[in-house]
TrEMBL record:
PANTHER family: NUCLEOPORIN-RELATED. Dirigent proteins impart stereoselectivity on the phenoxy radical-coupling reaction, yielding optically active lignans from two molecules of coniferyl alcohol in the biosynthesis of lignans, flavonolignans, and alkaloids and thus plays a central role in plant secondary metabolism. Keywords: Apoplast, Membrane, Secreted, Transmembrane, Transmembrane helix. It is found in: Secreted, Extracellular space, Apoplast. The keyword NAD does not apply. This is Dirigent protein. It comes from Zingiber officinale (Ginger).
Length: 210
């Protein structure tokens, strides 16, 4: 829609200059050039057209919702744990002890089941940043390794509360790489399943582009 509107504006601009639009789509450069009133008009038109094309391709007016599941082998679950202490300043079963630092490398899957197809990895760190030890600060990258967004990533940061299962919390999407370059938005997380050794969370990313 933004691309269509931009072209309509350009068409009106061209008409105002007295340019024959039919010549603009003709493959012969000489005919197009002869229809322009001056070289400055050519430059202005090309700049406007180039801007509209870039806008359409980058999806600056786009909106994207992605859902996937974070599959974690919890802290202290043995040699296959995907969450470990980098610094353990104070004991805590959640890792949220004040001053603690944990790092993680969890699998992202399409669904909640442990054999659901893998789409990427959730790689990041968490810091016990609350004296009350009821939350932490997380900084992470959602790195896609399969599917449509293979090779791209989403940057996320924000609080991670120590809370019961099914608690919904929000973190900020601050950027990304590849298909998510200039991404902004928010990530909703809800832990939906747990065992003695695993924790599964549903991630909903709501993304717009600058």
């Amino acid at each position: 829609m933004a691309f269509h509107n931009a072209l309509s504006i350009h068409a009106l601009f061209i008409a105002h200059l007295g340019i024959n639009i039919a010549y603009l789509v003709h493959p012969t450069t000489m005919q197009m050039a002869s229809s322009l009133s001056s070289s400055s008009s050519v430059v202005v038109f090309l700049l406007l057209l180039f801007t509209s094309l870039c806008t359409a391709q980058s999806g600056t007016d786009g909106y994207l919702h992605l859902r996937f599941y974070n599959h974690e082998r919890v802290l202290g679950s043995g040699p296959n744990a995907t969450v470990v202490y980098a610094v353990e300043r104070r004991g805590s079963t959640s890792g949220a002890g004040f001053g603690n630092l944990i790092v993680y490398d969890n699998l992202l899957r399409q669904g909640v089941e442990p054999d659901s197809p893998i789409v990427g990895r959730n790689q990041g760190m968490g810091v016990g940043s609350s004296v009350a030890e009821n939350s932490g600060l997380t900084i992470l990258q959602l790195v896609f390794t399969a599917g449509e967004y293979n090779g791209s990533s989403i940057a996320v940061q924000g609080p991670f509360p120590v809370a019961p299962l099914q608690t919904l919390f929000e973190r900020a999407i601050t950027g990304g790489t590849g298909r998510f370059r200039n991404a902004r938005g928010y990530l909703w997380t809800r832990e939906v399943r747990s065992t003695n050794t695993t924790l599964t969370g549903r991630l909903d990313a709501y993304i717009t582009f600058l």
